[in-house]
Amino acid sequence: MNNTILKIQKAEISDVSSLQEMGIAMALETEGISLNPKVIQPGVEYVIHHPNAGFYLIARNGNEIAGSLMVTPEWSDWRNTWIWWIQSVYVYPRFRKMGVYRQLHTTVLEMAKQERVPILRLYVIQENTKAQNTYQSCGMQASAYQLWEQEVSLNSEAPDGLPLVP
Asked: Fewer CB near the last or first residue (10 Å), C or N of the chain?
């Protein structure tokens, strides 16, 4: 399939269960984390229903989904422009080493050019050298930044189950 052209398209609401399945598989495989399907499903639906939050791309081999990724925008005041973050990358094991991610990445790159987005970023678990090699082969490079985070304890949940921050 290395030379097979996959159909790359934006995900639709009918793809939610597949995106949920891939998100759960990716978290377990890369971080050993078991995601709650009741949390990830509305999280995926939110992105599909709110294009300003981002979008998913799906790679299809015929009627079968081979892989996907999500793109989320970040505004850079320093650059006065958008940065796109590639996230939630997953390729089913049976489709790995067949160019699935490369085709997804090429599509994101072309979309970024069309939308005049000058920077693509992603984060990857430090131990995942296979993924890092794939990203490097697509033209990405490690940045000077480290990714830091802090979880915030929230006192309440949104009444409708949606994220508290739009």
From this structure: C
